[in-house]
Each structure stands twice: as structure tokens, then as C-alpha cells.
Design goal:
The complex is a heterodimer. By secondary structure, chain A is of the alpha/beta class. Helices cover 42% and strands 25% of the residues of chain A. Chain A is globular, with a radius of gyration of 19 Å. By secondary structure, chain B is of the alpha/beta class. Chain B contains eleven helices and twelve strands. Classes of the chains: A alpha/beta, B alpha/beta.
Chain lengths: 265, 321
Amino acid sequence: MRKTVLEAVGLHRAYGGVQAVDQVSFTLAEGGALGIVGESGSGKTTTARIVVGLERADAGRVLVHGQDRTEHRRGRAHRLARARQVQMVFQDPYLSLDPRTTVEAVLRETLRLHFPGADHPRRIAELLDQVGLGPREAGALPRQLSGGQRQRVAIARALAVEPAVLVLDEAVAALDVSVQAQILNLLADIREQTGIGYLFITHDLGVVRCVTEDVIVMRQGRIVESGRTAEVLAAPQHPYTRLLLDSVPRPGWDPKAIAVARRSM
Amino acid sequence: MTTLAIQAYRLHLPNTARPVLAGVDLTVEARETVALVGESGSGKSLTSRSALGLLPTGAGTEGTVRVNGDDVLTMTGDQLRALRTGTAAMIFQDPRAAINPLRRLGDFLTEGLNGRLAAGAATERAAEMLDAVGLPASVLGRYPGQLSGGMLQRVMIAGALMGDPALILADEPTTALDVSSQAEVVALLDDLQERFGTALLFVTHDLGLAAAISDRVYVMYAGRIVETGPAEALFNRPRHPYTAALLASTPRPDAPGGRLAAIEGRPPSLREALTGCPFAPRCPLATFLCTQQEPALLAVEAESARRAACHHSDRTGANDG
């Protein structure tokens, strides 16, 4: 049995009268990959933001290595320590990178902040190599890179602080199929090499099958089903999970039946 | 008459080393659903937008793009306006970007009919079309911000139907939607097409979706059609290595987990001129011939409805992914 790296216990978050996240608990094993699947409004992104610390829970706790990160202790050192536990990669690298900063400078800035006095050029080269970027890309600005390359930069920046957990919020959703496959394979390699844990937020069941070991399915703020990814996708127990699976287009697909099933839920 | 007939269509842009569209041939008949599949930069959106005469600034064209027999590329401003408000209509990917958020949806729906119908008659037609897409007439008085993305996409579809078009161009109309609302929008398009007999060109990056909804599929790469044929046959046994690679790199919920067969490299940039087959640098089957001579889009042996632009289409195996 592997040790638990990340644990969420009874997370709650309401906006006005709406329970965006309602009684959400899960654990992520060290070096494991957990998928959170759901459609818009399911609460999957709010859950991710609570885990990272971009959003506060009304109730519940988030533990990393058994340590509570939801009680917000003030001060720069605590803030940086929290950032080193969990890092996030967003959907749109066009928005999450500064358009005026070169790739190398992005990484140097992060390393200086967290590890003053270390050998940065060597570490920068190592990070770039890890995500499959070369010296040509190191000097480039975000707009000179393709979407896939930008997402590689975002991943390198997240890895720079050697986090225990990487939260990926629809991190491959904006990419073309062929580039998406490259990034998914890269993520699999990195997990194998570093033993980092992934919390993978996505609406795409194919992506979940490809990169996660366990999955939770969310709907209207609640977890409706959870289990081993292979088992949940092969034999879904909850009607909503079945609806999501049936909604994936394939030859012989019947959109009308799905539309009817969706309205009756 | 063929509703949309694109022939030997080439499009050049300034400051590029190769044509953006390099000889595209494509047809859509009345009542037919045709999917145009490709990745970003393949030219699929440019092709569909050309059917409305929506060309980028500075574009030079050769060939013909005929809608109901009339060449869009030689139309005057008045003729284009009549085309865009009547014969052909487009559904865009993001309804929030395509519909003015400050105006009521009734205004959005009737603006194309101004001057052609009395205001009362236009509003009546708008209510009818909303009903056809399953929305109440009260939506006419609402603002875009008051509707969900799925509902707003239905309003856009209603808007496309307003001029009773012969051809609907749908550019990734479900990409911004949740998977289950995607099914709903596809079911709706299907239904409307049956009712109104419209020809539908569905532009998408999703080969699975294309195979699920269309009669025929065209696959584009680097401004060329590289493979075409009936949806199911193409999905079951792709005859171009690019189609096969796209299928293999798509993560599927029913596939075994783990690594994907990714295509190495990336599509050629518009700044490099091409010699030979544009896919050759990324192709596992490429030989010396492929780097020297561009393959023509030819019928695949014994299957007249299927064509592939590959020197080695006979060596492209069954889809076992």
C-alpha cells in the first residue's frame, strides 16, 4: 500500500445559495494519478482551486503528507512552503505565461524565489530537457512558441519547485489531438521519473482512461461515483457516469437517445 | 444540383512560402452531412468560410467555390450579402463570441431579414425557428448573458435557419459545449436537416465525432485533402497514414490505458515551402519517393468512393487502436 500524499476531507464551498462543492473527500496516493471528471458546474474546478489554495473552503480540510494546508498561516515563508507542496497547470498557456518573459527567465524567476543561491542554469537546462524543449526555445517569448510548447513551459515551471502534487486543470483540452497525445505521454514519463502525484481535472473520459489510475465523477458539487478508472469506465454504476460515457461520439452513436436520457435526469 | 462544390481551390496569403489551400476539391449535396476534419492550421476553417466569401485580407484565389451553382469568389458585395442572409449560413464555435451581448436575442435573430420582411413577420419567423430548436418565444426578449452555453448555441442555430438556407456551415459548433450538450446539439442539427433538407458541412477536429454524425468525411492536412470517403469505412480502415495516426493518438475511454501512439513533430509552418508529400517528415511509411513527389488524391483500389493522397495507401493497415 502506497502512502497518501494528498487528502481532501469533507470539502464544502457555497456561492450564494448554490453548493458548488458539497461533501467532497478523496485521497491521492504518492506518485498516483487521480482524475476528477464532470461537466461545467460540477464543481471540479472549484475543488481543484481549493486544493491549490486559490479558493477557500467553507468547511473541510486539505492535507499534504498529513499536514493541513487549509489553515492559512501568514507570512512569506509559509506561503512559499505551501506553493512547493502543490503546483497547478492551467488549460490555457496563452493566459498563464507572461507575454514579455522568455522561457528561461520564467524558470529562473521561479527558482530564484524558491531556492535562492542554488545553481540555476544547470537546473533550468535539466527542466527544459525534462519537458522536451531545447536551447532554441529557452530564449523564446511565449508568442514565438506553439500551443504544445507553451504547455510544456507551464509544466516545466510547475516542476521547478519539485512539488509533491501537480494539479492539471483541463491541461490538454485546448491542444490539437496529435499535440495532446505528445503532452499526455510526456506527463506519463514525468510521473514515472519523479514520483509526483497528479490530480487531473477533465471533462474528457478518454484522457482520464489514458493518464489516471483512480477517478471520481462529480455532478452538481457532489461525488456520484468513484473507483479504479478502468473499472468505472468498463462498468459504470451511476446513471450519470453512463450518460457521460454514452455521450462520447463513435460510429453507430445515437445522439437522440442521449438527449432524451439527459433531460430525464 | 450540388449545393456546395469546391473545385481546384487554391488560396494564397501574403508573406507565406506556400499556398494556405493547395487545390481543395469538396462537394456537399442537399440533405447530406459532410465532415471536414483537421488540426489547427490545416485550412479547414478557411475552406468553410470561403463558402460564404469570408476571406482573409490580401488573399488571392484560384479555382471555384460554387454554392447552388454560383461562384462565391466572383460575387459582388450585394450578391454576397444575399448569399449570407439567405442561401448559406454559418454556426460558429463560441456563441458568446458570435452574438452581441448588449442586444436582445430577438434583434440578433431578425437582423438578417431587415428590409426583406416586415418587422412583425420577421419576429414571427424568429419565434417559429426558436420553436424548431426547442426554445420558447420568450427567449426573444432575453440577453445572451441570461442563457447557458448550450441554449445560446441553439439560438445561433435558430439564427442560421432564419433565411431558410440551402447550406449550413458549422465550424466546431459543439467544441465549447459539455459532452452531453454536444449530443443534444448534434441530435438537433440532425433533426432540422431532415425537416428542411439542408446540406450540412461540419468542420471539426474530432475524428470520432465526424465518424459518428456524417455521411462522408474529408481529412485535411497542410491545406490539402489527404483522404476522403464514407465515414464508417474511413474510421475502420484509414488509407492515409495521417488519418491512421490521428485515430491512434486519440485517447478513448474504451481503450487500454497508458501511452498513446503520438505523431512526432508538428505540421509544416506556412513559412516553409513544401516538396513532396507534406506529411512525409512525420510519416512512418515515408520513402525517398515521398520526399520528392507530392501524391495525388486518387481512388483507393476497388473502392471508388474512397480516395487517398498517399504513395503507400496500400500499405496503410487496419485501425487496430
